[in-house]
Amino acid sequence: MTYDYDRLRTELATGTLLDDSRRDIFRYAKLLPVAGLDKTPPLHVGGTPLHHAERLGAAFGLKNVYLKDDGLNPSGSFKDRASAVAITRARDIGATVLACASTGNAGSSTACMCAAVGMPAVIFVPQDAPKAKIAQLLVFGAHVMAVDGSYDDAFDLCLRVSEKRGWFNRNTGHNPFTREGKKTASFEICEHLGWRAPDQVLVCTGDGNIISGIWKGFRDLHHIGLIDRLPKITAVQAEGSAAISHAIHQFQTAGTAPRAHAWKDLVIQPVHARTLADSISVDKPRDGIAGVRSVIESGGQAVTVTDEQILEGLRLCGQLSGVFAEPSAAASIAALKKMAQAGSINEDEHVVCLISGSGLKDVDAARKSVGDPIVVAPHLEAAEEALRHQGL
């Protein structure tokens, strides 16, 4: 989606572009496809902190590492940004039911926003979706359809049912309003940094919609003149779910200039996704071309990490920054370490890692990342002995 950037530049010059009465994503309503603010959900979406993670950065020899902690959104994930804009659009056009396919986060986000406004939500999930995310769906009152198959199977079934019943389909990569919601994280990052773009942004990537939304946000700000340069965007994927990364590497190896490339002709080969990072486990990325384009146009790169590296990233993020990330979000920390070791990040660069979801979404993975260091101390002497053994 494009906007009347000339008009927006005028509003910027007159100080009327941003709504200073708000600190959620609708502070940027003039840069969003919403008719007004009367149909927005009554929950505070966005306005999440950007932490300067000095201890975490120092562990990798970096001075300016920032964590965008979107696990603090109402449903505990970045996806609330997309759902808030999508449900506003749905209500603007008089839709009565919202449908969504999800491995968990998009579904729980949709259910959360629908519960807040009293709209029925129907969520299609693979049967192996994490229990904590399924619990959220049920608590929010969603109608849950468990599909005997993958996320892609759930996606396709959701499309067919929504088309037959005339429901508003929020599916990522299908509904353009999701990208518009996700771009608001870029607005907040730049505003937090004094309307300066960071040098690099690391984005956990599954179907390509988050990373394309992040890139869209930076480009919108650049069109208006709120930032004077664009950051490099890194797509972070699990090795077991790396369809977009494979396409990026092939594209970069070919050395074709972006302007000469016909994006519509780009073919992204599906994979058989296998990773513990369920939120980025995708066979066929539905917004893959836009994801690849975001990286190529920004001059960024694709980085893949193993499940073992993701678990280490989860532990390091918690112990060195105090931010509890789910596995898909922790992939960005694993990639940060890998890039720092490879010398592809300079120590003075301002680097943002997107923490897209709370670790409470997958406590089994969190426990797996640290083992079981709990000490049984039935009395004072046992406690003292254990503490001495741990160097305390």
Q: Could you describe the 3D structure shown?
A:
It is globular, with a radius of gyration of 21 Å. The protein has 392 residues and is of the alpha/beta class. The protein contains 15 helices and 10 strands. The strands form 2 sheets. A 6-stranded mixed beta sheet has the order 1-2-10-7-8-9, with helices on both faces. The model has no long low-confidence stretch (mean pLDDT 94).
Describe the SSE topology.
Layout (H helix, E strand, L loop, with lengths): L4 H9 L36 E3 L1 H6 L4 E6 L9 H14 L5 E4 L3 H13 L3 E6 L4 H9 L3 E5 L3 H15 L2 E2 L6 H7 L1 H9 L7 E5 L4 H16 L7 E7 L4 H12 L33 H11 L2 E5 L1 H15 L5 H16 L7 E6 L7 H8 L9 H10 L3
Parallel strand pairs: 2-10, 3-4, 3-6, 4-5, 7-8, 7-10, 8-9
Antiparallel strand pairs: 1-2
Helix pairs in contact: 3-4, 3-7, 4-5, 7-9, 8-9, 9-11, 10-11, 12-13, 12-14
